[in-house]
Write a structure and sequence with these properties.
89 residues, alpha+beta, Arc Repressor Mutant, subunit A, three-stranded antiparallel sheet, 3 strands, globular
Length: 89
């Protein structure tokens, strides 16, 4: 790795709170819910944020585009995905 490369090849690039700043209010709310609750499903985020499921899906897709949310399949129920906030400090 050269000095000009800020990230290694193995480590995925993460977003920052600055990346969230220009997103819609629903995406900001979902980011804050994940900040306080660590890892959640879409349904849990909808219940906690009081947002409709469709709005949560849209917010999560916008957050994933900015690389501030990580998603993975749930081991207990493969039909569900778990979301967690991945923001650089």
């Amino acid at each position: 790795m050269s000095i000009s490369e800020p990230f290694s090849q193995d480590e995925p690039e993460r977003g920052t709170w600055d990346d969230v700043r220009d997103l819609p209010p629903s995406a900001k709310l979902v980011a804050k819910v994940l900040e306080y609750n660590d890892t959640m499903t879409q349904q849990q985020i909808a219940e906690e944020s009081l947002l409709p499921a469709r709005t949560v899906r849209y917010a999560l897709s916008r957050l994933e585009d900015e690389q501030v949310v990580d998603s993975r399949f749930s081991f207990s129920d493969a039909r569900k995905r778990l979301y967690s906030l991945e923001i650089e400090a």
